[in-house]
Design brief:
Radius of gyration: 24 Å
Number of strands: 0
Structural class: mainly alpha
Shape: elongated
Distance between the termini: 54 Å
Length: about 120
C-alpha cells in the first residue's frame, strides 16, 4: 500500500467496525484497530493516523494489510505470551530465607535512606 491508498469498505463493513468499537466485549486493542480503519476510510492520512494512535507507520500498514487479508478476524491478536498480572506472579518468600538476627527495615528508615540517596 502506498500513502495515497485509502481502505475501501462496504456499508456492511463500516457497520461491523462501528459495532465492534461500541462492543462491551471487544478488547481495547481491537477497538483501536477498528477506529484506525474507519478513520483511514474517512480520509485521514497515514501520518495523521500515526500521530493520533501513537504508533509507527509500519503498524498502521500492518493493520490495513491484516484487514485486507482476513477482515475483522485478522485484526484479533494471536495467542502467545502474555504479561502476567501481579496477582498471578509468584514471588519467593524472603522472610523464610532471612538469616537470624536480621530485622526488617521500618518505613521511616526506608524513607530516610531514600531521601539521602536522592540528595
Amino acid at each position: 500500500m502506498n500513502m495515497e491508498t485509502l481502505i475501501h469498505l462496504s456499508t456492511d463493513e463500516v457497520t461491523l467496525l462501528r459495532q465492534t468499537i461500541r462492543s462491551t466485549t471487544a478488547s481495547l486493542i481491537l477497538k483501536r484497530r477498528c477506529q484506525c480503519l474507519l478513520y483511514c476510510f474517512h480520509g485521514l492520512s497515514i501520518t495523521e493516523l500515526t500521530t493520533f494512535f501513537h504508533v509507527p507507520q509500519r503498524t498502521i500498514y500492518t493493520w490495513l494489510e491484516q484487514w485486507e487479508k482476513g477482515r475483522l478476524s485478522a485484526l484479533l491478536d494471536e495467542p502467545g505470551r502474555s504479561i502476567q498480572s501481579p496477582s498471578t506472579v509468584s514471588y519467593p518468600s524472603y522472610r523464610q530465607s532471612e538469616p537470624s538476627g536480621v530485622r526488617p527495615i521500618s518505613p521511616a528508615t526506608l524513607r530516610q535512606f531514600i531521601s539521602k540517596e536522592i540528595l
